[in-house]
Amino acid sequence: MSLADLAPREFWERAAAGRALFVSASRVRVLAHYDPDGTAAAAILARACLRRGLEFHATLSTVLDADLTRRLAEESNELLVVADMGSAQLDALEALGLPAVVLDHHQVLRDSEKVLHLNPVLWGADGAHGVCGATVAFLFALALDEANWDLVGAALAGAVGDRQHVGGFTGLNAGLVAEAVARKLLRRERGLLLREAALPASLAASVQPYFVGISGRPDAAAAFVGRLGLDAKKRPRDLSPEERRRLSSSLATQLVAQGANPEAVETLVDDRYWIESERIYADELTAYVNACCRLGEEALGMALCLGDREAFAAAEDLRGRYEGAVLASLRKLEDGDLHQMKHVQFFYHESTTLAGSVAGIAMPFFLDQSKPVLGLATTGGTTKVSSRGTKYLVARGLDLAAGLREAAAGVGGVGGGHNVASGATIPKGREREFLMRVDTLVGEQLKPREA
What is the average per-residue pLDDT within 280-296? Predict the structure, then answer.
């Protein structure tokens, strides 16, 4: 398959202009979002720079705000590359007055003639499900040099981090994965998405899928395994075909009983992708990177995506701490630590970096599927908001990006993202007003349309 088949023609035309900027630069400033998708994108760009003999300085950030823009303006940069963000901050980037490339997949408000804007959404791609920041960065890396095909593992980890694999890869992601499998850079396997540990430990540690009453509860997990008559010392890979069917059937029944949506149930048994160059499954790499990013160790997460094998030893402890904290938070939601409004549901969390993770797991696996969820966390003088919906709600008209953007603007904040997942930053003390605005806007979006 040729590159022309992997993305719209207009993308490659702009990517060629971006390649010309790289050829003329000796040092590249990379700025990316701090989550697994942005971290993977930054790692792809870093490797592409190293292979061209370019110096680079990479920063991972939660937001591209006025303070960060001011710091960028004070630096002496030849070329700025922004990944997994930027489409909503074109005004600020244009004001910098330096050559800049934006590699994003979030909703676009406009295009730019001053910044090289490479967002496939401009040409009809689905940025919520069909392409992520890391896959855009990977496509750009291919435009720089097709020898960069071996970086596809990091791109896949980014897509998994944005949950774009749920229900199967689509859009630009699907084309990249199919070609990488054909090139034997990835190996597709189908199986239970459980950690390879003794069954009770595997179920107790399971975050995605999340099993109500079992995940985060070692005793309950052991009892569940005992009721199935399975050997508690066996790992998922040790099970016979009949035992595996018995376990998967029982777990699927559990997910349905707890109110998980159909796509969440399907994640129990799904395709896994083995990254040949990194010798790890994409979902496992994502899990480690995600833990690093959420606990403030973004540099370590980037090192993992750069192929640093020694970094995994340090990341193992972080993953345990992160998943333990997430499981504890999910148990609180199970126990009723959740507030209901007419059209949305919300919770407060002490961590700005964990609120989004908790919302993203709870929504598909056990919360009320008729309402999107918002997680709010306050730090300093601001409150960070992370929201999650479902494909079903989006099909009914939900657009969290538009809703949070308008509601946040109404209280002096900013917001945006995707229709199914979005975020906002608002002034501390304006939370109730913001929530009421979101509730009203979501109610309007979900109102039945006349035929």
Answer: 91
Q: Where a domain ends, among 236, 266, 296?
A: 266
Parent domain of 361: 339-445
Q: Which helix (H) or strand (E) holds 248?
A: helix 241-257
Q: Which residues 6+ apart lie within 8 Å of 346 measured at CB?
A: 338, 339, 373, 374, 375, 376, 435
* 259 lies in some domain: yes
- Please report whether residue 385 resides in a domain: yes
Residues in CB range of 143: below 8 A, 6 or more apart: 3, 12, 15, 16, 18, 19
Compute the distance between CA of residue 42 and CA of residue 59 in angstroms, rounded to an integer. Answer: 8
Question: Do the beta carbons of residue 28 and residue 42 sit within 8 Å?
Answer: no
Q: Starting from the edge strand earliest in sequence, which strands make up the sheet with 186-192, in order?
A: 186-192, 269-275, 280-281
- Structural domain count of the chain: 3
Residues 198, 174 within the same domain:
no
pLDDT band at residue 68 using 50, 70 and 90 as cut-offs: confident
Which range in 85-89, 125-129, 243-247 is most confidently predicted, on average pLDDT? Answer: 243-247
Pair 97, 23 in one domain: yes
Please check whether residue 307 lies inside any domain of the structure.
no
Q: Are 73 and 167 part of one and the same domain? A: yes
CA-angle at 86, arms to 84 and 90, nearest 5°: 165
Residue in this structure with the two tokens 């997990």, named with its chain if needed: 221
pTM passes above 0.85? no
